[in-house]
Automatic annotation (TrEMBL):
One annotated GO molecular function: peptidase activity
InterPro entries for this protein: PrcB_C_dom
UniProt protein name: Protease complex subunit PrcB family protein
Domain PrcB C-terminal: 86-140
Residues making up the signal peptide according to the UniProt record: 1-23
Gene Ontology BP terms: proteolysis
Superkingdom in the source lineage: Bacteria
Pfam families from the UniProt entry: PrcB_C
Keywords carried by this UniProt record: Hydrolase, Protease, Signal
Length: 169
């Protein structure tokens, strides 16, 4: 009796485990058109905005900005035509405790929308009195859009057009 119970339990567990293992293998999961690749509290970009980096020339212009606090060598820049980068800056802030991050992304027609989550310290929070320039770097798909829109509470709505020499794939 004990042997048949153990065998039945073993078969049931095997069936459950193999079902779990197979359940996600053939499922099409939606892929996001954007994901965060870096963030910094000291980007050096003193005004709120977005910088669209689609080429080595764009990257060189970004690197030439005075006071840039981003480590560009750590960013995925191998193929900017296939995976452009967007640097979203919150601008200069008077204390620590501010940040910006990617909340969501979506394609709508020929528009790529980046929804940003912007946070700031609570009014009663104890924070360091230091100037910060928070930003986030987002890698985006190169396919399906011509206009980039960045929005988030506390940010101005920002719109950028793709370069004329970049093909919409």
């Amino acid at each position: 009796m004990k042997t048949s119970f153990t065998a039945a339990l073993g078969m049931a567990l095997t069936g459950l485990l193999s079902g779990c293992a197979l359940s996600g293998d053939n499922v099409d999961r939606p892929t996001s058109p954007a994901h965060e690749v870096a963030a910094s509290l000291h980007c050096g970009l003193t005004a709120p905005g977005a910088v669209l980096v689609q080429s080595r020339e764009d990257l060189k212009r970004l690197a030439s900005l005075p006071g840039l606090g981003l480590d560009l060598d750590r960013l995925p820049t191998e193929d900017l035509e296939q995976q452009p980068l967007v640097v979203v800056a919150q601008g200069q802030k008077p204390t620590a405790g501010y940040s910006v991050s990617l909340k969501g992304a979506g394609l709508n027609g020929d528009r790529l929308l980046l929804a940003m989550a912007v946070s700031e310290p609570r009014a009663d929070a104890m924070v360091a009195q230091v100037l910060t320039t928070p930003c986030v770097v987002v890698a985006v798909t190169a396919e399906g859009w011509q206009t980039l829109t960045v929005e988030g509470q506390g940010l101005p709505e920002i719109t950028r057009q793709r370069s004329a020499n970049t093909n919409n794939r």
